[in-house]
Design brief:
Its main location: membrane. The chain is mainly alpha-helical and about 450 residues long. The protein is built from 18 helices and 2 strands.
Length: about 450
């Protein structure tokens, strides 16, 4: 596979500025910003309209549902590919240097679950999965079913990527692709739990094959946008006519949808691209706060009334109001000392590591792949910038490795002197699942 040697991506966003860090590829932030907008638009159109429109305008709600459903093969698959891409370095680093990639989203899931459970136990109009007791909450910690499933998935996918990073990546991705294509048959009634199973392949692909993501992004720039869009619609409509399982339809269409998303992100220019990129570095507060705001909005009149034109435009108005409001609320919560709502406190990682380590010691369970990190190996032309193990002369002796350059998408780290002390990390104001060293 061709080594494109792209400029290294930063593994952590700038949490205090809208300026991108040096070396961060602009289209990554643009794509993440577009994805989070599509998430909010999806919820505004399929939840609020469903409840608020009168019966005679049911066709508007159905039309929006069809459009939003048709965007499923782009929206979250693209987001997870990019999340895996920026975690590519962490899956290969020692646990103490990478543990924030797991504890960060796990902490955010734990922190936000109780207030959202309480909020939606009071607000019962907005459609969505609600936890109704302690048993439901405990089950959700094991397999997320609420709107916070994305945070849960980031933590689980990171552990999965670390578990398989030493294996040949093609068979791994083939197996995960089959899991995604057949996820319809997973025994669950919750769409969010289905999503946890379905989207694993995208994160792992970004984490294990960042060179492939960069290659696709580079080559798709030369493909006419209309050709990609036509191929996307052909897959979506054709597979629907073929009555294939929903998961198969979603997965096959995503093979065109993700490149289409990358193509659109790279085509964006000027002020729109700058705004999307700025939002792409601020996805976390939008993600965790937009649904409660939509839950409040569902009890208000539609912003443009209940005419057909007003109903068609209502999701865009909700989008334009809700997204800036989430960012303002984020600033306010930080000013009130709510940093811990958006960041993993520095003391949490070592404390949780000690707790987990004690349990492993008592059980005798070995998880050396997790604690010590995976062997840093790469085939020629593999992960751009990844430390390469030479097989020349067989496998006798220790592999020669170098950390110079790092993995594309990861900060350059040195093992000189070990990794004494865990880096203090923070996701304050940044992307969902990304970390910043304080």
């Amino acid at each position: 596979m061709t080594d494109l040697s792209p400029a290294p991506l930063r593994d952590r966003p700038d949490a205090t500025s809208d300026r991108p860090r040096a070396g961060r590829l602009p289209w990554v932030d643009v794509a993440k910003g577009a994805s989070i907008l599509l998430v909010v638009l999806h919820h505004a159109s399929t939840k609020n309209l469903l409840v608020q429109l009168p019966g005679e305008l049911g066709w508007v709600s159905q039309a929006w549902y069809e459009v939003s459903t048709a965007l499923k093969p782009v929206r979250m698959p693209l987001f997870f590919v990019l999340s895996g891409l920026v975690a590519a370095g962490a899956v290969r680093r020692p646990w103490r240097a990478a543990r924030a990639r797991f504890w960060g989203p796990a902490w955010l899931h734990l922190v936000w679950l109780p207030p959202l459970v309480v909020f939606f136990s009071v607000e019962t109009t907005l459609p969505g999965n609600r936890l109704t007791g302690v048993t439901d909450v405990l089950a959700d910690l094991l397999w997320a079913s609420t709107s916070l499933w994305f945070l849960y998935a980031l933590a689980v996918y990171f552990l999965l990527a670390r578990a398989v990073v030493r294996l040949p990546r093609v068979p791994v991705l083939v197996v995960l692709a089959l899991v995604a294509a057949l996820a319809t048959y997973v025994p669950t009634e919750h769409w969010n739990r289905f999503s946890v199973v379905f989207h694993a392949v995208y994160f792992v692909a970004g984490a294990l094959a960042p060179d492939l993501v960069h290659a696709v992004a580079e080559r798709v720039r030369r493909v006419p946008l209309v050709l990609l869009l036509g191929g996307y619609l052909l897959c979506w409509v054709g597979l629907d006519a073929g009555a294939v399982p929903v998961s198969t339809r979603l997965f096959v269409t995503s093979l065109v949808g993700v490149p289409l998303g990358l193509r659109v992100a790279q085509a964006a220019t000027g002020r729109p691209a700058a705004l999307l990129a700025a939002l792409g570095r601020r996805t976390l507060p939008v993600y965790v706060l937009h649904l409660p705001l939509l839950g409040l909005a569902v009890h208000l009149p539609l912003p443009l009334g209940t005419s057909a034109a007003g109903a068609l435009l209502a999701p865009f108005v909700l989008l334009a109001v809700v997204v800036p409001t989430t960012l303002l609320l984020h600033r306010g919560l930080l000013a009130l000392g709510g940093t811990w709502l958006f960041a993993l406190p520095a003391w949490v990682e070592p404390a949780l590591d000690r707790l987990a380590g004690g349990r492993r010691a008592r059980s005798g369970a070995g998880v050396s792949w997790l604690v010590a990190g995976a062997p840093r190996t790469s085939t020629t032309g593999g992960v751009a910038g990844a430390p390469r193990t030479s097989t020349t002369g067989g496998v006798a002796g220790a592999p020669r490795t170098s950390t110079t350059g790092g993995v594309a998408g990861a900060p350059r780290t040195s093992t000189t002197g070990g990794v004494a002390g865990a880096p203090r990390t923070s996701t304050t104001g940044g992307d969902v699942g990304q970390t910043e060293r304080r």
